[in-house]
Amino acid sequence: MNEHSTVDNFDRQLGQFDGLPDAVQTRPATVRATSLVQSETFIIQTVRHGSGDIVFIEHVAGGTATRLVLPPNVTEVIARQRDAVAYLTKRKQGQRLAASSTHTQRRNPLLDPKVRAKALAARKAKAAKRRARREARGK
User: Fold this and answer.
1) Residues 81 and 68 sit within 8 Å (Cβ to Cβ)
2) Cβ neighbours of residue 47 under 8 Å, at least 6 residues apart?
3) Is the pLDDT of residue 104 over 60?
4) What is the pTM of this model?
């Protein structure tokens, strides 16, 4: 049997970037996601080539392994969606903070009746002093 017939798409694509001078590879990162019922292992490696970022994912759960190759157009969509979610999260948090601070901290002090009465009394006192100075000059 031919040796190349047993090589799947994952191995073929990963192998084609091995040793290329313009291809940059990360080291494979292993992530274990565990729950009360099941443990899953993910092995993720990213390769940047002239055509874009290609992500290789190996998923092992329940004794079965699945291997995926995410092409550049898929990784671009994932990055774009991640940026959009981050932007929307920051925006919502900003709106929440603005709404809470507007009602509690940013109250216009001139709307307070006591402050308005004090300002009116100060204006009347200053006007009376101006009148008195003008009358004193006029004599």
Assistant:
1) no
2) 14, 17, 23, 24, 25, 26, 53, 54, 55, 56
3) no
4) 0.63
